[in-house]
Specification:
This protein has helices at residues 2-29, 41-62, 68-91, 98-127. It is mainly alpha-helical. Helix 1 runs antiparallel to helix 2, helix 1 packs antiparallel against helix 4 and helix 2 (41-62) runs antiparallel to helix 3 (68-91).
């Protein structure tokens, strides 16, 4: 029971968070929303693409697909790498807003949680009788 609950929570968080990320990014890309900070276009495009990928991974988690944990780890790793890059760019005075660094940090933390919940579901499934 715990394994299913952990996996479903992880899947729900992944899908909802990724949909919100995608919608927010598309609004900026289409000019519907205009943030009051400098938008780094490649980062915005990355976020939209990863939002779509996140929805797919979330659905795979919900359906308990074999590769879902591996894909969640890849998404998380990519977010952590991009977080490191945008943090360095921001600290070096580049065209990366602090808001973007914070948002990337939030994405990384959320995906670390998704990976942890998914891993816990796998752990409980191997420990059960």
């Amino acid at each position: 029971m715990k394994k299913t609950l952990f996996r479903k929570i992880a899947a729900g968080i992944a899908v909802i968070f990724s949909i919100l990320t995608t919608v927010d990014g598309f609004q900026v890309l289409l000019g519907i929303s205009k943030p009051d900070y400098i938008v780094l276009q490649p980062l915005l495009i990355y976020n939209v693409i990863m939002g779509v990928v996140g929805v797919i991974v979330g659905v795979m988690l919900w359906l308990n697909r074999e590769r879902a944990l591996k894909l969640a780890v890849i998404v998380t790793s990519m977010h952590l790498i991009v977080l490191a890059l945008v943090s360095m760019m921001h600290l070096a005075g580049g065209a990366v807003a602090l808001h973007s660094v914070k948002a990337m940090g939030l994405r990384s933390i959320v995906w670390l949680g998704i990976v942890w919940l998914t891993w816990m579901s796998k752990k409980h499934s191997t420990n059960v009788g």
